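Following up on my earlier message about 4-(N,N-dimethylamino)cinnamoyl-COA. Here are the inputs again, as you asked, copied directly from the submission form:
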Amino acid sequence: MSTVLYEKKGHVGLITLNNPKKLNALSAAFMTEIENAVAEVEKDTDVYVCIITGVEKAFIAGADISEMCPLTAAGAIAWGKQGTDLNLRIENLRVPVIAAVNGFALGGGCELAMACDIRIASEKAKFGQPEVGLGITPGAGGTQRLPRLVGAGIAKELLYTGRMINAQEAYRIGLVNKVTAPEELMDAAFALADEIIKNAQIAVQQTKRCVNRGIETDIVTGIDFEQQAFAVCNATEDKQIGMGAFLRKEKEKNFVYR
Ligand code: DAK
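Thanks, got it. Here's what our run produced:
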């Protein structure tokens, strides 16, 4: 039985992390399986949104401490590259990625969730960056993505204390967009995916690129990037479909993703 499940539901690529005995701790082998599932999404242009979730009580309870424990500085660089690359790959995936955080999202798990475009959480979710308590810094983007999401002050408090926070607190600080009852989490994730899917996908994907690029650059460069994306969308069939429907006062828009 695979510890990472991949299935397609309509235009959604659903990745389910399924190693509950280890609380989905990120071993090298487990990360390879996640990479393979992400590769499925990457190559399938019929997937418009990706959802990542976990089974039972964990989203991901961090990197596998038994693998990290014997690492030397040199070994850590090689080992660490896999996690860093995986998160960059998720962040730069062509399609929006929703993290449906069902339980523990700690250390590398919180970092992977933060590499996703949008996070929604079950009331049972718990977030934290406990690395300093293990004698290490966060290693897969925690010191970079957390301050960008919640601001430096709150991020530093969480990073220096290693404190675990619940879903409501994560919502209050802007780490997650929504909190749901546990049994409603996947319905909420799919409802959000459907709201994205009904739009013109080249426009959605270009918008993702603009936000990701723009957030890392000065505003003039970011706006220039946005202008290029706008030009690209103007050459699409979906633009004619979207605007044509408005001008003809039609509700129905049958986008063709061209
Ligand atoms: N690693 C290995 N095994 C883990 C694990 C982890 N992170 N988390 C849980 N497990 C295992 C437990 O050892 C236990 O295994 P058995 O004893 O049954 O064999 C099983 O999962 C169930 O866990 P518990 O019995 O502990 O379950 P509880 O409900 O009592 O507690 C817990 C749940 C999440 C509070 C607890 O398991 C816990 O504190 N887990 C560790 C959390 C943690 O410290 N995570 C690591 C943070 S450091 C890098 C990239 C990434 C990273 C670093 C570098 N580079 C790119 C450079 C990431 C670092 C981290 O994530």
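One observation from looking it over: The chain has a mean pLDDT of 97. Hope that helps, and feel free to reply on this thread.
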